[in-house]
Amino acid sequence: MAVLACSAAPAPQKAPSEPEQPGPVRSPADAVAPDAWAPAQLPQAPATEPAAAPTAPSTAEQHATSVDPENRQEPITGEPELHTRARQLFDAIVSGDAALAEPFWFPKEPFVPLKAVDDPGKYWEQLHKSYLRDVGALHEKRKTWEGASFVRFEIGKKPKWVAPGQEANDVGYFRSLHGQLHYTLGGTDRVIDVHTVITWQGRWYVTHLGDFKH
Question: What interhelical angle do 80-95 and 120-140 show, nearest 10?
């Protein structure tokens, strides 16, 4: 009897497998036990330059900003600041260097609004030149100032309030006549007359060093 040959049945095809889904991404910190976890350090703010120290206002700024617009502050007579500026005037006379006397001279910034004249700036310039000239004249009065020593400055006559309008002024001030620079020379006490000082915000300033004519 004939035997029929038969082919082997084809192997069953495997169903295509599902693509493997990626698991959650794990950082190295996930592998660390929770009690060992520490938060990351916050980023540090960039270093900044230290703030610059505030600068002192200039002389012009001090005089341009009035604490008392009517200038009624009582005169300050005993503070070291006045003593220092008076000494600078004395040093100018002794040395013949008039520039040293500037701190005791009435500044231009408050003078312009204070005086009720046609050109207060020009008037200030005239008075200023006289002041510097008077410093030089006092220096020339002695052949030598060697050994001269400043002692103190004294306000002259009792300060008087000069109301606006009394001396061609729009702003009032206190005025004193014939202040005295005391000094010693050769063992003798001596005095230099300071004709006129007036106040601005309580501080005394010279407007006439020597005698003058209106």
Answer: 60
How would DSSP label each residue in 43-72? PPPPP-PPPPPPPPPPHHHHHHS-SSTT--
| Token representation of residue 87 | 């000494």
Q: Hey, is 18 helix, strand or coil?
A: coil
How much is the pTM?
0.69
Nearest-5° angle of CA 184, CA 99, CA 80? 55
The HSE-up count of residue 32 (CA atoms within 13 Å, CB side) is 9
Answer yes or no: is pLDDT of 96 > 90.
Answer: yes
| DSSP letter assigned to residue 190 | E
* Kind of pairing between the strands at 188-200 and 173-185: antiparallel
Mean pLDDT (whole number) for 73-81: 91
Cα(82)–Cα(103) distance, integer angstroms:
10
Q: Which helix (H) or strand (E) segment is 4 a member of?
A: none
Contact partners, residue 106, CB within 8 Å, separation at least 6: 124, 127, 198, 200, 205, 206, 207
H-helix or E-strand spanning residue 204: strand 203-208
Angle at 152 between CA 95 and CA 134, to 5 degrees: 40
Which helix (DSSP H) or strand (DSSP E) does residue 15 occupy? none
